[in-house]
Amino acid sequence: MTDTITASIRYVRRDQRTDPNEKGYILHYAAPAGFPQNNFTIKSYPNVKVHNLRTSAHVRWESHGITLASLDSSQMKPEYFDDDDWIERVYLPELHDCLCKVLGAQDVTIFDWMLRKRAISFPVRKEGEEEAAQPSLSAHIEVIDYTTAELDGRLDQYFGAEKEKVMGRRYQVINIWKPLTGPCRDYPMAYCDPTSVNREKDLFLVDEVFPTVANEVFQVYHNPNHIWYYVPDQLDSEVSIFNAYDSEKGQELAVPHCSFNLGEAGSGIPRQSIEVRAFIFY
Q1: Which of 23, 86, 226, 264 has the fewest Cβ atoms within 10 Å of its own Cβ atom?
Q2: Are 82 and 95 in contact (CB under 8 A)?
Q3: For residue range 84-123, what is the model confidence (pLDDT) as tens digits?
Q4: CA gap 252, 195 in Å, rounded
Q5: Where are the domains of the chain?
Q6: What is the CA radius of gyration of the chain?
Q7: CA 263, CA 186: separation in Å to the nearest integer?
């Protein structure tokens, strides 16, 4: 497989009819009659170069917030991941050890995971299909803001009386992604080099509004200077690790990411994957 392919990457484009001072939003439920479901649109930009992460030796965790690691998946059949208890007993401990070894972390606290199973109809969504279970196609970054009361509450929840102690150490919030079967040739993940992102001009803050909660994400505007990577034929024994926050650098190395269509090069069963979010401490 060649070191560079061209593909379409989806970026945000603000609706020209929207007040430029209005914060972006998208409703993940049926909007009231006459109320827009969102105030921005997503545009697909073709012919974007996507480089082979395996052969990009200059891309390192310390400087780019992206790396690839291996773990033993010989006893990890795809159907096992449907069992939350099995994930906690088997997969997450294996991942914990992997992260400590690869990143040199002293400790790891995993706080969230999600399975995604691409529907045959995707990217067209049929009525009744769960939106959160599908690959995310637009370039985005989860917003990490450690000044908010909500996040302070999360830290209380995760660490309790130990919160002040653990927050005194250097830590990062990271994402870990792996396919449940491989080689993955169906809507693999793409990662944008964070050093190629203009943090002042390229990021658009959006509220993702669910019936009971709202989360903030950065959608990403197109910039021809962006440099994209992916892992060709990623195996189920390989995990992609990418940065979301660093206690020393903030979101300077937070990695925009999305799924993308390989087009004619794509093949295999519809993608199934697991993504995990964790604190790591040094």
Answers
A1: 264
A2: no
A3: 999 999 999 999 999 999 999 998 999 889 999 988 777 6
A4: 8
A5: 4-281
A6: 19
A7: 9
- φ, ψ for residue 198 (rounded to 5)? -85, 105
Q: Is 182 exposed, middle or buried (0-12, 13-18, 19+ CB in 10 A)?
A: middle
Digit-coded pLDDT (tens) for 170-218? 989 999 999 999 899 999 999 999 999 999 999 999 998 888 888 888 9
| Residue type, position 125, single letter | R
> Could you read off the pLDDT of 240-281 as tens digits, one per residue?
999 998 988 988 999 999 999 998 888 888 999 999 999 999
Structure tokens at 159: 């660490």
CA atoms within 13 A on the CB side of 18: 16
- And the tokens for 107? 């400790």
Sheet with strand 4-14: strands edge to edge:
4-14, 40-52, 228-230, 189-192, 257-259, 140-142, 214-220, 203-209, 24-27
User: What residues are paired with 274 via a beta bridge?
Assistant: 115, 178
Pairing outcome for strands 189-192 and 257-259: antiparallel
Give which of 46, 54, 42, 53 is closest to 7, Cα–Cα: 46
The dihedral formed by the CA atoms of 226, 193, 233 and 1, expressed in degrees to the nearest 10: 60
Mean pLDDT of 48-58: 95
**Structure-token pair, residue 127:** 């009525």
Position 127 scores a pLDDT of: 60
pLDDT given at position 132: 47
Residue 163 phi/psi, 5° resolution?
-55, -55
Which CATH architecture is the domain 4-281 placed in?
Answer: Sandwich (2.60)
